Amino acid sequence: MRKPIIAGNWKMNKTQAEAKELINALKPLVKDAECDVVVCVPFTDINAVVEAAKGSNIHVGAQNVHFADHGAFTGEISADMLLEAGVEYVIIGHSERRQYFGETNETVNKRTLTALAKGLKPIVCVGETLEERETGKTEEVLKKQVVEGLKDVENLASVIIAYEPIWAIGTGKTATADQANETIGYIRKVIAENFCPKCAEKMRIQYGGSMNAKNAHELMSMPEIDGGLIGGASLKAEDFSVVVKM
Ligand code: PGA
After folding, report:
1. pLDDT for 41-89, tens place per residue?
2. How many angstroms separate the CA atoms of 180 and 195, rounded?
3. Residues with catalytic function
4. 82, 40 Cβ separation under 8 angstroms
5. CA of 164 relative to ligand 1 center, distance in Å
6. What are the φ/ψ torsions at residue 157 (nearest 5 degrees)?
7. Which of 155, 152, 149, 159 lies closest to 127, judged by CA?
């Protein structure tokens, strides 16, 4: 049995004061959650969120990590810096980073290898564009993202994958539960065939893209879907807690 994991992706939202307020509101609402609860917050919020979440079941994640230990990489952050601040999880290769900041399968792979070597739990994002889906390229694109993104990874079971169709992110247009289940099943098959069948069974694969309080139940009831990466709906305690309790 795979334990579901619901992670909020706050993206570039919330000042420290707002972050503290959100965590304080969230704590009592999610305290009995049966899934792993994670919030992936902006770098400047990490200290405040770790402090506010102390003693609760809320785990803290970041939204990026560099592959080098340290050095001349303006604007980046290292795994040691994140670990020192109390971070456990890290989102890698979100489609917004691929789209706007030149992230590739190769850099995703390097960041993932470093995160794992340092003991951070990576949430590796994959997903197709609308054009790719409409022209029948979804499987080809996902296979490449998964095989190249996870190349040389030894402890695959520690990796979480977030399947996020780009056309569903922030658009209010969710994949249907069947579509998401089928595509995640395909990702699991790719992992079994290219890496190891046992790891594929153990790995948690989330759905992401306009997942919210209204559609979470249906998505979470699908056998292949092990949780969600939640953007917009993670910014309000009430909405996020409903998703967590599905
Ligand atoms: P959304 O974002 O829930 O706002 O669609 C999900 C994500 O990008 O991780």
Report:
1. 999 999 999 999 999 999 999 999 999 999 999 999 999 999 999 999 9
2. 22
3. 94, 164
4. no
5. 8
6. -65, -20
7. 149
